[in-house]
Design goal:
The protein has one domain (29-213): Vaccinia Virus protein VP39 (Rossmann fold). Helices cover 31% and strands 25% of the residues. It is built from seven helices and nine strands; from the N terminus they run βαβαβαββαβααβαββ. A seven-stranded mixed β-sheet has the order 4-3-2-5-6-9-8, sandwiched between helices. It has a two-stranded parallel ribbon with strand order 1-7. α1 (24-40) packs parallel to α2. The longest helix is centred in the first third of the chain and has 17 residues, at 24-40. The N and C termini lie far apart (62 Å).
């Protein structure tokens, strides 16, 4: 039998242990989009869940906001601290760990290209609900899936590679607007708007949702 280890790749980018998701032009566009939304929302205190090497955190800081970054990889957090020593980073697994910050500490929570990797994605939204102030916003980006894109992937027979089944740490959840809306609604968030990033409309590489925490009477 062939050694399956030879056919398994590690998901991510080279540079530090485990790799750093979020590279390339799409990653740059997502970060620019998120920062613009945070500025539009007039946020002051922001939490980045799944911050990677801190590139988005650095841009948020440069835009005049306070930023805290969480990531479950100790190697990535060490790299982030080294690259951005003035910023605050914590090694936190959103699916398992207790949040180390106080409740209602942030105006916004951002999480870019993370939720598709989580076995328990509700934990991310639950943590955001706890740490956000009243009317605070949650911004999530994740690979886009819609009818036109799904049809084209099937037409060119790319579902196997798209599902990244042979990638360690690859995507395990494939979100649509409908399913992500349902998850957010279940945790008392209302959708404000959507955005698409990369390629042409309805064949986007990623989608971004901006949702607001509903006020509790």
């Amino acid at each position: 039998m062939e050694n399956t280890k030879k056919g398994v790749n590690r998901y991510g980018w080279k540079g530090i242990p485990g790799g750093i998701p979020g590279g390339g032009k799409t990653g740059q566009r997502i970060r620019s989009f998120v920062v613009a939304e945070l500025v539009k929302l007039k946020c002051k205190d922001v939490l980045d869940i799944g911050c990677g090497d801190g590139r988005l955190c650095s841009l948020i800081s440069q835009a005049g906001m306070n930023i805290v970054g969480f990531d479950k990889s100790r190697g990535i957090i060490e790299a982030a601290r080294k690259a951005h020593p003035s910023l605050s980073f914590f090694c936190i697994d959103v699916e398992q760990d207790t949040c180390p910050v106080k409740e209602t500490s942030f105006d916004a929570v951002v999480s870019t290209e993370v939720i598709e990797h989580l076995g328990k994605p509700s934990k991310l939204v639950e943590m955001a609900q706890v740490v956000l102030r009243e009317s605070g916003c949650l911004i999530i980006s994740t690979p886009y899936h819609g009818y036109s894109k799904n049809f084209l992937i099937g037409l060119v027979d790319k579902w196997d590679s798209h599902h990244t089944t042979l990638w360690e740490g690859g995507h395990i959840k494939f979100w649509s607007r409908k399913t992500l809306t349902r998850l957010l609604n279940d945790y008392d968030f209302q959708i404000l708007r959507w955005g698409g990033i990369g390629r042409i409309p309805y064949l986007w590489k990623s989608m971004v949702v901006i949702a607001q925490k509903n006020n509790v009477p």
